[in-house]
Design a protein that fits this description.
The protein is of the alpha/beta class and 193 residues long. Helix content is 25%, strand content 37%. The strands form two sheets. The protein has a nine-stranded mixed beta sheet with strand order 2-1-3-4-12-11-10-7-8, sandwiched between helices.
Length: 193
């Protein structure tokens, strides 16, 4: 099982370390051809508009194909890339998860914060989860096929649809490994429910 971390820009190295700690073999993906060699992908935080520029049209199309076929976890800017609709300003999304998302939705004063939210686990109810938000986006619409897997206050902050999972916070910056473990489990079972 080989996990790629998109390494064009942003905090890809924290994801690499976390995945390696959990026993995964990790490849830093800098060229779109490398997508052919991995079983799952993490799209890290960073600047989603910069990712789009660096990917270019071809890279974007290749990534779009990948996220339809293989498990992908997007955090923060990565969640923005996976969305169907992106606002503030408008930009294209990969459409892997049927959500509308608003960039930089918390305003300047609360650029970054650490808050306690809730993680839902099947059959075990909700449990507290530390969430690091950095210039975070907000999920403003959740489509009917999308499962909300974490909330903060009233807001959905982690969602899943089929093989794609997105979090508006940065699980790679907290000690808690549950989000990455859930993603690795999805890769392991090759799940696309
Ligand atoms: N504000 C960034 C964006 O709009 C996301 C921030 C992050 O990934 N920490 O793309």
């Amino acid at each position: 099982m080989r996990i790629g971390v998109l390494a064009l820009q942003g905090d890809f190295d924290a994801h690499r370390r976390r995945l390696e700690e959990l026993g995964a073999e990790v490849a830093l993906v800098k060229k779109s051809e490398q997508l052919d060699e991995i079983d799952g992908l993490v799209i890290p935080g960073g600047e989603s508009s910069t990712f789009l520029k660096l990917l270019g049209d071809q890279g974007f199309e290749k990534l779009k194909e990948f996220v339809r076929l293989k498990p992908t976890l997007g955090t923060c800017a990565g969640a923005i890339l996976l969305a169907a609709e992106v606002e503030n300003p408008k930009q294209v999304g990969l459409g892997a998860i049927d959500i509308d998302i608003r960039r930089n939705a918390y305003g300047r004063q609360i650029d970054s914060s650490i808050r306690e939210g809730k993680l839902r686990s099947a059959g075990r109810g909700d449990s507290p989860l530390e969430m690091v938000f950095i210039r975070a986006p907000k999920i403003e619409r959740v489509g009917p096929g999308v499962e909300v897997i974490a909330t903060e206050g009233k807001d959905p902050v982690a969602v899943r649809q089929g093989k794609a999972m997105a979090a508006t916070f940065h699980p790679e910056l907290s000690e808690d490994t549950r989000v990455h473990r859930a993603f690795l489990e999805m890769v392991r079972v090759g799940d696309g429910k």
